Every structure is written in structure tokens, then in C-alpha cells.
Amino acid sequence: MSSYLKLRKIHIDYILSSAALRTQLTADKIAEDISYTKNIQYMEELYLTPPEMIINVLSLQDDINESILIVGHNPALTELANMIQDDSGISKFPTLGILALKLDIDSWTEIKYKCHGETDFFIFPKQFKYYMPKQIQAIIEL
């Protein structure tokens, strides 16, 4: 998944992760793969929490961070995705899935239910089970 982020030249300003060990390991690996050098914030508030709590956490973030990666858990991530995006319809957020949303907000304080999030991309490992684009294969082989 991080190879896809590298291929798309996705820049992440800040990473928020659940404090659970598995999500910490996932966040650490993504950060390493995409050459993210800032601190990762591991938060108990993102562990087995309702999506409203994740929105609350996001609303407190510094506006200097334009793109934030959240590494968390289901069902909260599925519910969150369907709460804030316009083209909702994710039945279950898959393990290691990445949903990139472009939000129509000027400040993190404006994030809320149906804040007009538009899907940039939605990827997950099973999409690459039978076919992996050559560009991603090349990145993995580096």
C-alpha cells in the first residue's frame, strides 16, 4: 500500500495512529516506506472508539497539517468514511485499506458530518492480488 502512495507522490503532513501495537507497527512501516520523518502520534483515543471521537481528534489538529493519515480500526473507520464523504458507500473498510479524501474545509475545526469529502482514491491489498501495476512492482524491487 505504501508503494502506491510513493507512486502517486502522496505527501503526508502528519500521522495519527491508535495506540494498539498492530496499528503502531503499521503506522511505523508506512512512515518508513514513504520517508516520513516527523513524529507519529499514538493515541488511546483512536482505539475502539466511535467515529465521532475521531472527528473530534481531527478537529483539534493544527491547520499547518494539510494531509493527515489515520491508522485505526473498524468499525470506526468504515463509519467515519461514510459520515464525512459525499460519495459514501463503503460497506467495510478492508484491512490495510487506504481511503484518501479531499475535504472541502479550510480548517480542521470545520470537519463534521458530511463535510463534503470527495474520494481521491480508495485502495486495498486484494485489488493487487492478481495484478500489480509495473510502476508499483518497480518501487517494491528498489
Q: What number of structural domains do the residues give?
A: 1
CATH topology: Rossmann fold
Task: Please identify the top-level CATH class.
Answer: Alpha Beta
The rough form would be described as globular
Q: What is the assigned CATH homologous superfamily?
A: Phosphoglycerate mutase-like
Q: What is the mean pLDDT?
A: 87
Helix content: 25-40%
Number of strands: 5
Major sheet size, sense and barrel closure: 3 strands, parallel
In angstroms, what is the radius of gyration?
A: 15 Å
Order of helices and strands: HEHEHEHEEH
Distance between the termini: 15 Å
Work out the strand percent. 15-25%
Strand order across the biggest sheet?
Answer: 2-1-3
Q: Please tell me the CATH architecture by its name.
A: 3-Layer(aba) Sandwich
